[in-house]
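G., the chain you wanted modeled:
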Amino acid sequence: LHRVDRRQRQMCIRDRVSTQSTGAMSSQRPHVQVHQNTYAFRHNPRSKKTKKILESPNEGLCVRCTEQIEWRKKYRKYKPLTQKKRCTACKEIKIDRAYHVLCAECAKKLQVCAKCREPKKVVNEFGSTVIEKQKIEDMYSDDDSG
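Predicted structure as tokens:
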């Protein structure tokens, strides 16, 4: 009896393994998404945390990293820092933005993205928030008019 049970278990395991999809077989069969969304994700409009997250600027990042963080903000996956982090270049505790690995000074000095550390073109420089850009534009427009 013991041998028969063992053989039956082995046969069942073989059957299960053979029916599972493998790399070659799965590409041949059409695959339909199991759980399809019926409506788009929306933030809670009265959430203070969401408002704070959406207002935080993406500075010192390349295009790819900016898109990644914007996606996190859009779908409420962004987790702001609760404490400052240590910079990987200067080893000082200066980083106050989530997902960054370099502080603003080191990223400017090395001319790299503060998240991926690759020497790509940075989209928004540190300190160039929308309010500061508007102030600079206002200063130039006042000089032109006068």
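The radius of gyration is 26 Å.

Shout if anything looks off.
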